[in-house]
RNA sequence: GGGGUGGUAGUUAAGUUGGUUAUAACGCCGGCCUGUCACGCCGGAGGCCGCGGGUUCGAGUCCCGUCCACCCCGCCA
């Protein structure tokens, strides 16, 4: 073994070899991917992080005259002595053994394999060593795999050995590298912030860490570097970035992990446009370098389109619309009010509440929306019913009213067909642009539920009809800035106004007069970057004017004392000469997921957690002994069931 | 907190109205094979049907509970 490693150093990685390497003597190290034993000649595919190469172990090559017949391949006669040993070894090796070989790269002649990049060549092995044997793995280490994720995660080190995951993690590295270079070139300093921070109520739930040196007290793990990056601006660092882990103790999803990575940026003396162009430049660079794709073909101005939040909700039902396809919503609330319900009793009730002034048109509590499935989608009735079943997982969903439009504009296959007035029907057909054979889907009731249902319906239809793939980008990239959402949200439970994002977001200038009189209509300089229906980043221009800040707090019902307790150090800092500033954080994991086309975030994170937040590999989290808790002066109240 | 889907050899799946010895493919082990690359051919081993109760003469199959994984709603400023 010491002859390899110590004397014979690796010359190439397996996946790198090409026709241009023919005739070279190479030394390769790697894992046995497959072995095909023909009795005499043995083929072994050897794998490393770059790919796979075919090794040939053939006793015939112990003879010098056989070499002479092989064009372009020469070998020292003294080296032939190991060929038979190598062949003997090849007969014994098994999958995933770690081996080292010395050999000569030759052309495969008539036997090229077009399926792999190294398929033009093979290596005739003249010397070999086994570094380590391996137990049979619980699943095959191949590119395509259908093994349950549960098992893949329990043996993550084997899963990660697969070429697609090697490629994915390398892409993450590339994104990191481009980001560091680009943001450094743009004058941003990479500065670090603490993970162990002060607990902040509200917002995402914090992970808590007992503070041994301060018995009875706890740190929180940072949910983001938000406060600290603002302090960097106050301190005059002017432009900052960090590729940083964030921790949030919330329920998980396919695009959410309890610890995740953000590309965090904060800039002084900027407005929203400045933040956008910096980030657009970053995304263009990442696409060019990592995907070899020039986004200027799609966005010649070098800018992504923008859509106000309210318009996004109206047209798509959410704040992260997938723009790879149409199927926009139509808001029929006004039409329904004008038609006094158009004969539909549920709609009449809603219309009446608007007429009586119980509901406001600017911020409607209930709405009526429609979405047209074009006749060309050619969905059968059972398929439509299956779409409806898919919506049942949304809380508050009561059913989807459909109407198939006939040649004469009447509706069939619809619970609404009998009651709708001809006038209302005709106006709806016109407004939604429905033609014969189209199916109009209706949803009405509580605004939030209608939006959620219709947003899911829109995406489900697109997937079902093949407008977009089930997952992955389908080589379509549609970016969007969603801008100016409301600053406040009314909390039904407490009857108070709450900050929709955080209390330090700058209101849109022309809405500042409404801060007290009509908080619902105050929009702010907050923005999300959306790619193919995923929010990949979000940020805001911060509120640095103490006078406006005080008015925002007032609307939120936070008095001076509360404000001091909650945000004391930040308020002091903002009064100490804070520059106008703003920033953004990009979700590094989501970006990697979208760029690689991976179906879940877990596929772009080396060691992810399950949906229950457990690590299948290590078993974390675990119960710790009483003595460890005692040292921390922490007592668990957990009672095992039963 | 709520809704849904799944768990059967190492892996992926099939398993009929509840009925003899629980199937198949791949993988694994042994043998043969000098141009394969999803090598081929012959033979073999491999199972607490997630776990715990119940119904039944009899449960992979029916019922209850529970654990685990996945998807969604709430939640994630």
Q: Can you identify the CATH class of the largest domain?
A: Alpha Beta
Radius of gyration: 31 Å
CATH fold node name of the largest domain: BirA Bifunctional Protein, domain 2
Summing up helix and strand content along with how strands pair, one would put the structural category as: alpha+beta
Largest sheet: 8 strands, mixed
Count the beta strands.
23
**Number of helices, where a helix is a run of at least 4 consecutive DSSP H or I residues:** 19
The CATH fourth-level homologous superfamily of the largest domain: Bira Bifunctional Protein, Domain 2
Q: What CATH architecture of the largest domain do you see?
A: 2-Layer Sandwich
Keywords: Aminoacyl-tRNA synthetase, ATP-binding, Cytoplasm, Ligase, Nucleotide-binding, Protein biosynthesis
InterPro entries: Aa-tRNA-synt_II (IPR004364), aa-tRNA-synth_II (IPR006195), aa-tRNA-synth_II/BPL/LPL (IPR045864), Asp-tRNA-ligase_1 (IPR004524), Asp-tRNA-ligase_1_N (IPR047089), Asp/Asn-tRNA-synth_IIb (IPR002312), AspRS_core (IPR047090), GAD-like_sf (IPR004115)
Subcellular location: Cytoplasm
Region (Aspartate): 226-229
Structural notes for this entry:
This protein has 642 residues and is an alpha+beta fold. It has 3 domains: 1-132, Nucleic acid-binding proteins (OB fold (Dihydrolipoamide Acetyltransferase, E2P)), CATH 2.40.50.140; 165-307 and 480-484 and 516-617, 2-Layer Sandwich (BirA Bifunctional Protein, domain 2); 325-467, Gyrase A, domain 2 (2-Layer Sandwich). A hairpin with a 4-residue loop joins strand 1 and strand 2. Helix 6 crosses helix 8 and helix 6 (163-185) packs across helix 18 (588-596). 35% of the residues are buried. The structure holds one RNA strand of 77 nucleotides. It is an enzyme of class 6 (ligase). InterPro entries: Aa-tRNA-synt_II (IPR004364), aa-tRNA-synth_II (IPR006195), aa-tRNA-synth_II/BPL/LPL (IPR045864), Asp-tRNA-ligase_1 (IPR004524), Asp-tRNA-ligase_1_N (IPR047089), Asp/Asn-tRNA-synth_IIb (IPR002312), AspRS_core (IPR047090), GAD-like_sf (IPR004115). One of its GO terms (molecular function) is aspartate-tRNA(Asn) ligase activity.
